[in-house]
Write a structure and sequence with these properties.
Blueprint: H1 3-8, H2 14-27, H3 34-51, H4 60-67, H5 71-77, H6 80-95
């Protein structure tokens, strides 16, 4: 089952996102440690949970900018790890999130 299907079925996990991230990070030549990959996966999952109303949570400035598709603001707010991983956030939400994500 794809991450999009899991998102739509409300069964998406951090581990699902990590599974997607590892090969994408290699393909994009984004050098992240396993801990950094896990942090990025948790951040993506946090946005998913917030969007879906599973856990309405304060996202903070960086994740709010990512959520709003404002990557200029996200870049300004990102720490070093998230700055390096910004392409992965962009690719995840463009390719893995359902099309309704952009409408919310």
């Amino acid at each position: 089952m794809s991450n999009t299907e899991k998102w739509n079925g409300h069964t998406l996990t951090v581990e699902d996102i990590e599974g997607w991230l590892e090969p994408q990070a290699k393909a994009e030549k984004v050098d992240l440690t396993p801990e950094q990959r896990h942090t990025v996966a948790r951040n993506i999952h946090k946005i998913y949970e917030t969007v879906e109303g599973i856990r309405p949570d304060y996202l903070g400035h960086f994740l709010t900018a990512v959520r709003k598709n404002d990557y200029t603001e996200a870049l300004a707010r990102a720490d070093l790890t998230n700055r390096r991983a910004l392409i992965l956030y962009l690719k995840y939400f463009y390719n893995q999130a359902p099309s309704s994500f952009c409408d919310q």
